[in-house]
Amino acid sequence: AGRTGHKEIVQLVLENSVDPESPTNSGYTLISIAAENGRLEVVELLLDRGAKPNGARRGRACPLFCATLKGRESVVRLLLDRGADIESSAEADGITPLITAACFGHLDLVRLLIERGANVNERELESGLTALHHAANEGFEEIVALLLEAGADPDAVTSNSNETPFDYASRKGHDGIVQLLLN
Q1: What CATH number does the domain containing 133 carry?
Q2: What is the reported pTM?
Q3: Residue 2 covered by a domain
């Protein structure tokens, strides 16, 4: 019901004393499933019924990560408005919602997360990659420009290979991004 957006079914389930924080067989909570599928009304209902905006679990199963991964801007906005931790996915591997949005080219989400105070220089724990590394690697020129304008460090180096966003962009032939990073 959370996946398909059947608000009435979710409401019925909740009225029958089902804990909105209980994970499904897949390990995800109803709110994470609804968030991933962009079911704004269901997410709002679950929050109103006591589901936590950060979810019962952190990391990649949290609602904010699930919504960001799929580019669900209205759900991300709602979760942030209701108190979701903007760096919520960073617990296990350091992959934050901003890094995720930059990696998948969700320009509007990158803009929203920056406006809400996301750390533009947060790094993945193992690799040391930043949102700027990912955007440069994938060729998302507008996102690179936005991150740089917000103070992202163009000289940030990865943990394992000491590569900068410039190295990633030049290797992939993203000339426009190379120029942005040089200026």
Answers
A1: 1.25.40.20
A2: 0.86
A3: no
